[in-house]
Design goal:
Blueprint: H1 11-19, E1 49-50, E2 53-55, E3 74-76, E4 85-91, E5 102-107, E6 123-132, H2 136-151, H3 159-181, E7 186-195, E8 198-204, E9 208-213, E10 218-221, H4 231-239, E11 243-250, E12 256-265, E13 275-276, H5 278-281, E14 297-302, E15 307-313, H6 315-318, H7 323-336, H8 342-359, E16 366-372, H9 374-378
Parallel strand pairs: 2-5
Antiparallel strand pairs: 1-4, 3-4, 4-16, 5-6, 6-7, 7-8, 7-13, 8-14, 9-10, 9-15, 11-12, 15-16
Length: about 375
Amino acid sequence: MIKFEPNTPSKKVEEVKKTSSTLFPRIQRSNSPIHGNRSPNFRVSQKLLLLPDVKNSKCSSGRTSRVSKFNKIKVSTTRCGVVYGYAANSYRGLARYRKLDSISLIANLPCPKTMPENIWPRSSYYAIYDGHSGKKCSKYLRDHLHNNILSDADFPTKAKKAIFNAFIRTDEDFISQAEDQGEMSGSCAVVAMFVGSKCIVTNTGDSRCLVSCQKGTKIIHVSAIHKPDEPKENIRIVQGGGSVTHGYIINKAGEALTQGQARVIPGNLFVSRAFGNIDAKIPRLGGNPNVVIVDPHIKSFKINQDFDFILLATDSLFDLMSNREVVDIIWNSLYISRAQDLATQLNNAVEDLLNEVKDREVQKNVTIILITLKNLIENLPGENT
């Protein structure tokens, strides 16, 4: 066991500093231990835009944070460790869906009780909670998930275990509350947590995390897709006592043709992992706790000099575009705005991506968070350099 002596310039503290990197072991992919060209003429109407409920932070409300002319977009250019800024916004969609998504933008995460403050690095937390069947679940995650991670006894020395525990605990707490209130909402989640030079990406459901590398020439899809038609998820669902179904139509020959996305039963959901959804999980309501689960996929990596930015987005964005299209739209917008300050560049990049979403007539909410890293700053000459 390492003994810490905070604020004491002794040899022991120096030894702790040298070995502090061991506090954040490399985390590999994790599955459940049980289950297996920007144009000013294409601006989105402000009436169609919304920003989900935001958990604000010092960085997100600091003097360099600003709200652009785009209604309620959130932009910050305050550096926090390896993060040099971010922009976040949502588009309601043509079907005028209710505002079901929530986001967290938290910089300068407090030091957990398990670690001395003098070795706690600059850390931050960004997350999208993609709600469905109501907004209470996504709001609950916004208010509680990050706190449950930070308060877990295994964080940060066993970060993977702590995050896994926090996802399970948060789901159990919400389900207990939801059962008492008859609340049927649920939510997916994708989280990017920065601790020093490490980034830990965790997701449950089908929201995505992409990393743009080497000036956009390479894209890393960090998150997992938890949908019932994914082979591994399909097997897990069936083994857990559930089933996967599709809609279908009958053609002129009398044959049944599959139509639409796969759904998981019980729950009748398009995702196979999610928070909440008591009707899918509680037996007395017809649910099965082994079918729709909350167990997250976790991936940890070190932020290196080739990483440009990280994008978190709801699945509705990728119903319209490929990963490559999304990254290319962002880079094209950033290049056009390269002579502007960073806040304007980030604002325009998010705006232009939402413009493309609007042009493609998306029906559902689309929520995105663009997180800037050092390589992007160094490769966009202008007021930033």
